User: Fold Xanthine dehydrogenase YagT iron-sulfur-binding subunit from Actinopolymorpha pittospori.
Amino acid sequence: MDAQIELRVDGQPRALTVDTRTTLLDALRDRLGVTSPKKGCDHGQCGACTVLLDGRRAVTCLALAVAYDGAEITTADGLADGAELHPMQQSFVEHDGFQCGYCTPGQVCSAVGMLEEVHANHPSHVTKDLIGSIKLDDEEIRERMSGNLCRCGAYVNIVAAVREVAR
Assistant:
């Protein structure tokens, strides 16, 4: 069964017809040609497909496209302002927070979403003090970014990139 949906992807309205079983990741990549989110595990375990969905980070390989009709989707490509990189993107470049780069778009989107969660005082599993603002130390960053895997092992540089933007 097909359904017509509209998504706002990186600020642009995009209408398409999808099979109701189509994942948001497949709709973005295969139907709309948006290749920033990557298909890594296709099981919601690696985070390579992470985007900001209505401002919150989400893995798109587990989301059905029809469930997000009318949603605002921001990919790593949509974070930049023209030729000017988003501060998180720039920090990843400066701290060499990638090697092969496959996971990088998901890492960047996750980091941006994670900082919004911290700003809203959403605790994580390792948050020590739930009263007051959250101290974003390396342990807290690692815990909050744990849903995004880097098969190359660039974690030290990823944490440094996130830490710099968090300051």
